[in-house]
Amino acid sequence: MNILVLGSGGREHALAWKAAQDKDAKVFVAPGNGGTATEKNITNLSINIDDFDAIAYACEKHSIELVIVGPEIPLVNGIVDLLSSKNIPTFGPTARAARLEGSKVFAKEFFRKYQIPTANYEYFTTFEDAEVYAKNISYPIVIKADGLAAGKGVVICNNQKEALNTLDEMLNQEIFGEAGNRVIFEEYLVGEEASFIAVVAGDKILPLATSQDHKTIFENDEGPNTGGMGAYSPAPIVTERIHKRVMEEVMQRAADGLIQESSPFYGFLYAGLMIHGDEIKVLEFNCRFGDPETQPILMRLESSLPEICMAAINNTIDEIEVVWKEDAAVGVVISAPGYPGKYQTGSAISLPPVDNINTKIFHAGTKIDQGSLITNGGRVLCVTALGKSLLHAKQNAYKTVQNVEFDGMYFRKDIGDKAL
Q: For the purposes of burial, counting CB atoms within 10 Å of the CB of 31, is it exposed (0-12), middle (13-18) or buried (19 or more)?
């Protein structure tokens, strides 16, 4: 099977790596990165993921039989609609269904309409109105940019001064561009976060292994939000009872609600949850696999990823059985100096040889330049390892992390500690 994975990050490296494990699979990645450039049975295509015509042409040229869309922007902008119109099997939601991630205001209104538990909220389009609200509420509060902001458009404000500064940056300075034209004030929730990711095909739902990521840059969940500094699977906070409730009260209501909205969902649906005792609330929905959750989850997946994707496209996911390794997995992200702010690129990377099936170095912000591997993004690598327990997996991951080298590299040392 000829498969095309769209994207250039660690998630896409993991998706391509897993797809390439299928017998007779030939995988292309557009545009890919330094890691996918050196994988067996994987070929990078120099295509911008915003160039939909070039993507469609590449599908025809390489006789692509399955497209797996990694990042959210092409989904929100309608790549699935275009490729499906050309009868190219594409795994991911339509633009209409992807509004769940493309607009936080749409998502919050959707939650309210279909009785999906979530935090209380208000939203504003002008600084003046938001300022008045900010001066008449209690703190802490969460302020979110409405649109796509690469995981960085969420700010926890502990006081009025921080809130007004955040509003000024989003609405006046427009640091997130059009994504910050509307802002949401959201109730600050107490509890533990977890990622609940499922394959959804209309009203059918196939839950994947549970996971939890670490969003802030510093240890002990301090500092600004990032795209994710590490993740582990499974997430012990998601007990059997919680799992059942999430399936019924969150995932099924979402799938059924999207059908009611004439936008049935086909693809990865990701619910970011806050769990506090028996209380479950949805922080956000993403319309694609999470990054870095993808890396540890796919390390644990025994079954064929392309078969799962095709079953969803063909509406037969209730007919397949998915097998998982009993091992736990931990992924540690290594970032460039300055991330999540302005970061440095172009540094030479030295990687240790990984000679076992239980550890994998997934590339994100890397590229090959004149034969050498260099940094090319904020999140550079995700070292992911399996272990008989979460502790064992963590130890295996950090053992490899210690042997990675590039100038100014940074990583959190507490990935997985919440579960431990």
A: middle
